[in-house]
Amino acid sequence: MRTDQMLTRLEPVFARLDREPERPAHLQTPQMSRHRVVLLASTLAFYLAIVVAVLTTSWLVRLDWQIMFFRPYEQWPQLHAFLDYLVVLGQRGPTAVMVAAWLGWRSWRQHTLRPLITLGVALLLLNVTVGSVKLGLGRLGPHYATQIGSAELFAGGDIFPSGHTANAVVTWGILAYLASTTVTRRVLSIVSAVVSLSVGATTVYLGTHWVSDVLLGWTAGLLIMLALPWFEPLIARVEAYVFQLRELWRRRLEEGKVSEPVAAALTPLLSAGGKWQPRRAAEACTAAPAGAPAHSPSLRPAAHTVGRPHLIRSERTPVTPAGSRRPAHGERAGARGASARPATGG
């Protein structure tokens, strides 16, 4: 009885889903054009130049130390409280949840899993590329530095490149990448650029990253966004596989090869719009007494359908990022004259 009530409440949702339009005709998939390839190669060269400049302890490392000794958080302390909140726009957990919620709604509207799969691929590339460089170079942050003028490499750190900055570029840039019109894409590109620049500059202000960390984070995020068109065939194959898997479960439900609890859970997802009924529902309609309605109130009525079935809107529980390692404001103020203080990871 409880299952029947749940299906009755979900009926308007799935009926609306079936009446939604198909994927808009103007929704274009970005292509790997010659201009994009040239921009990708230039960005990659800049990425390597930053890494070499840090490895050789060049002028860029000296600039890192000069800004660290300048201590921007002490020069403009009135900005500290606001920037503590602004930097959250670069944390992977909160930003991934916000962007995934928006892209999930778009997937539901457009009958396609491409937005969510593209976000997943981009975040996977971000974790693999940025994470491997972080662990491989092992650079310490400004507040853990041990030798003045040193690049602080291979010391067990994990801040080069800046994960906050790279994540801001990818997470907010994916909205521009998936935009359905040229004007929307340009506007969202500007917004994502402003957000990522602000997050990177904030980490330097807070003293949690060197300037070179932020530069490499911006470049790493841009590389991922430029390379995404190469992964469009993979995204399409994953989407097709999910649809095939759904059809397989639908046939198993029709043939009665699924246990009762599993069938009760899958029926609302796979049978919306009255496109088909499980064998139990068909037998119930056949066994109804004479003069009774053709459909029991517990069964979901048919709805207007379109040629393409709706999607399964599955979600994965987001991973909560590690907490801040930076102490309270009072402790930071007491350590103003010290040469080092705890910091937030990036």
> What low-confidence regions span 5 or more consecutive residues with pLDDT below 50?
17-22, 272-345
* Distance linking N and C termini: 51 Å
Q: Quickly count the helices.
A: 14
The helicity comes to 55-70%
Rg on CA atoms, Å: 26 Å
Gross morphology: elongated
Task: Spell out the helices and strands N to C.
Answer: HHHHHHHHHHHHHH
Judged by helices, strands and strand pairing, the structural class is mainly alpha
β-strand percent reads: under 5%
Total beta strand runs: 0
Mean pLDDT: 77
Mind summarizing the main beta sheet? Answer: none
Task: Give the helices and strands, then pairings.
Layout (H helix, E strand, L loop, with lengths): L1 H18 L14 H22 L3 H12 L1 H4 L4 H7 L5 H19 L3 H24 L25 H15 L4 H25 L4 H17 L4 H23 L5 H11 L8 H8 L42 H6 L12
Helix pairs in contact: 2-10, 5-9, 6-7, 6-8, 7-8, 7-10, 7-11, 8-9, 8-10, 9-10, 11-12
What do you see in this structure?
The structure is a single chain. The protein is built from 14 helices and no strands. It has 346 residues and is an all-alpha fold. The chain has helices at 2-19, 34-55, 59-70, 72-75, 80-86, 92-110, 114-137, 163-177, 182-206, 211-227, 232-254, 260-270, 279-286, 329-334. Helix 6 (92-110) packs antiparallel against helix 7, helix 6 packs parallel to helix 8 and helix 7 runs antiparallel to helix 10 (211-227).
